[in-house]
Design brief:
281 residues, 13 helices, globular, mainly alpha
């Protein structure tokens, strides 16, 4: 009896303690980034380090928001990320539904070919992509960057939505056909509303992927006025010899706000979308 009581007490104490350590491990870099942005550069290398700041300094945020370059980078990132998300959703929904419901020759091979593109490193694709974009005049354009990012996000998005569409009973579509609903009407009025978690998950995935992109935007965009946030940070705010760490952390804090808002408001859709198809019913 005593052993059972001790085991229960150990579980009650050990589980929250392990979760606290786990959360601290992942949240500490964000905390350190936030407090670094509220310190002066002279305080950053103090020993012992100041883990808790008493007098926060907001001059870095005032300076950052007054810079037109940062506003331009932020606006470009929003335009590219939102455009990539919308285009990825449109194409992934159509392709995922086609792979789920239609029968055509070499269907499995086509899906395998699409997924195999994820095995190729981005650097190997950029060489051919740069030459092709140069010949078509797509360098230094947001359209070209959106196309590249959409192509990168599509394979996983198609696979995820196909899994969602596979779990929707075909009997619902057959009943709708008997009522005279067209194939397009079935997709937009029946299948898509039942696949909201998967659609939200794909949207969040494609937005995060395009927002965090560095290689594509650094290679395909060379004009400063067209740059997105990540290459803008690496080129404008990070020097070759000295670093203004407080200013860099301020930029990083500002750049994480859209991602944090996405997870805050759409977390349940992200979790349910990522776990779809894990259990066969």
């Amino acid at each position: 009896m005593n052993n059972t009581w001790k085991e229960r007490l150990l579980r009650l104490v050990a589980t929250p303690a392990l979760l606290a350590v786990y959360l601290a491990f992942f949240l500490f870099p964000l905390y350190w980034m936030a407090i670094t942005s509220l310190k002066r550069n002279s305080e950053l290398f103090a020993l012992p380090p100041k883990w808790i700041f008493i007098q926060p300094v907001f001059e870095h945020y005032v300076k950052l928001l007054s810079e037109s370059a940062f506003i331009i980078y932020y606006k470009n990132s929003l335009i590219v990320s939102l455009s990539t998300t919308l285009l990825t959703l449109l194409l992934a929904i159509m392709a995922g539904y086609a792979f789920s419901r239609f029968r055509f020759p070499f269907k499995g091979f086509a899906m395998l070919t699409i997924m195999s593109t994820q095995m190729l490193p981005v650097v190997s694709l950029l060489i051919a992509l740069y030459a092709m974009y140069k010949s078509y005049g797509l360098l230094n354009t947001h359209l070209g960057l959106v196309i590249a990012l959409t192509t990168s996000a599509l394979p996983f998005s198609i696979m995820m939505l196909k899994v969602f569409f596979d779990n929707i009973p075909i009997s619902l579509e057959e009943a709708a056909k008997m009522d005279g609903v067209s194939r397009t009407g079935i997709l937009f009025r029946i299948v898509m509303p039942l696949s909201k978690p998967g659609i939200f998950a794909v949207g969040i995935y494609s937005f995060i992927m395009s927002w965090d992109d560095l290689l594509y935007s650094l290679t395909l965009i060379t004009k400063d006025a067209m740059r997105t946030l990540n290459p803008g940070i690496s080129i404008r705010y990070m020097g070759e010899v000295a670093y203004d760490w407080a200013n860099i952390m301020t930029v990083c804090v500002a750049s994480t706000i859209p991602i944090m808002l996405l997870f805050l408001f759409f977390q349940k859709y992200m979790v349910s979308g990522m776990t779809a198809g894990a259990v066969k019913e």
